[in-house]
Amino acid sequence: MTGIDPRVAMFHSETQVSVELQTEDMTLNLGPQHPSTHGVLRLIAKVDGERVEEIEPVIGYMHRGYEKLAEVRTYPQITALVNRIDWVSGFANEIAFVTAAERLMGLEVPERAQYVRLILTEMTRISSHLLFLSSYPLELGAATPLMFALRDRERIMDLIEGVTGGRFHPNFNRLGGVKPAAGGGSTQKKVVQDLPAGFLEDTRVAMAGVYKVCDEIDGLITGNEIFAERTKGIGVIPADKAMEYGVSGPNLRGSGVGFDLRKVEDYLPYDLFDWQVPIGIDGDCFDRYVVRMEEIRQSASIIEQAIDSIPSGPLRAKAPRIIKIPQGEIYVRAENPKGEMGYHIVSEGGREPYRLKIRSASYSNLSILPWLLEGVLLPDIIAILGSLDFVLGDVDR
Amino acid sequence: MTESPSEAPARPDPAAVAEHFASLVEATGHSAAHATAKIIVPRERWVEIHEVLQEHLPFFSYLSAIDWSCEVAVGDPPGGDEVSERYEVMTRISDVDEGKALIVSTEIPKDDATIPTLIGVYGGADWHERETAEMFGIDFEGHPNLVKLYLPDGFQGHPLQKSFPLLSRDLKPWPGDVDVEDMPSTGNVEGGGA
Lengths: 397, 194
Prior knowledge:
A: 397 residues, alpha+beta, 3-stranded antiparallel beta sheet, 16 helices, 47% helix, B: alpha/beta, disordered C terminus
């Protein structure tokens, strides 16, 4: 080795040292208190560096025991309780339940009430998806859509509050229709009790704002290179896995399955209107985001058509004061903004159901996490969780 | 992104769906009351029947149970004839093309409350079986990880069994027992124009 500079020799010898570090997997706890887990979800992740080897979601921090509570509550009381399952879309939770109870009783809902239910359900869908549009880019670092989307969501919340009295827990459905709105002079007899004056016109005007905010956020986010890097190809759910786990709603449609319960089931008159079901192609986070964005536009179009063609008539069918449902069993499912939400009522002829099984959308959507999050990087977990758009009240019931 | 046409597909008839699948798997009973197709199968063929049905109905909706019991600690006992004490385990599966849906139900006795797991057929059964196991005390044979899902560790008892009381009801009478009075003009509800 004569003739070689000793410093070069030193470098040369150092590079011969093999850098086999002893590594161990680390167990990382994305605890129940975490800004991006959408509530009290706990993820226990075994990570190798930044890559997840195994993940276990721990849920149940918000378990309120709905199914046991429902066994001691009468049907109108359960209607008030059920708002709180998926608290972001309060009105939509009630729809499947009242439809199930009405079908067991054989009660027909008047047409105007069906239209009002449809309009309010679609407004709730827009509100839920606007919340998704405001929080999902924020988790990935874009702070502007938060302001835009929430501004228009507030307009819709004001409208819902104006007619139902509540923003998040409207409690507006009654067995047989909707609540005749509290208008002036509701304690007098023979007063026309209908929707508040101007509700339908104001809703129509608000829809123009909804289209505009969708276009604004489209311009900011959809073509953005950073957003595309963080969502394209991430969190791909193949269609057959999605069906095996019961993933539903925009998550299923993002994977290419064109299944929308509003087209398949007849709990509300959706087939009277001209609208389409957006379907994704690849099943990644980006597709789920685009599907929800497009669903907002379709819902706004449905609302405009419904307002143009709403019939007149009573808002509620006559129902007995003490509601006892005859013996029977029924399962009715509806398209909640998060997915398929259904109620399985087993009635034994009493004032309360004998068994109420609530099929909540986010529970099944979340059950795919141990399979989905295997081998992903830690930052991608945030992107995937946000794109599944779940609410812990829905998961934990 | 593609969009589907806006015609509503023809809705499948629940009675026809129940009959078709009942004969396909040789079920012991079927019904379609209230547009809810349901077939009843024996426990011994539980997994095998689901394997057959999975090709036609790949979407797994839920799995749960009903506790049929005459002595109840909460609510009212079942009306009508005397019901036999048993658990009824049911799954609901559907397809995603036409919307055909089916409830598959079986009965298991309370003193031998076990049933094979469906995890090999539908992966989604994992969490549903864990919840049913902790709520009813049913054991799912072959489930790799039957730990509690909702309830805290160390919780004793199975809440959704009919014999499990709601302590708050036992401690004090509930003011919500009385239905709220309706608004006086409920009988005359007429809507105006749009």
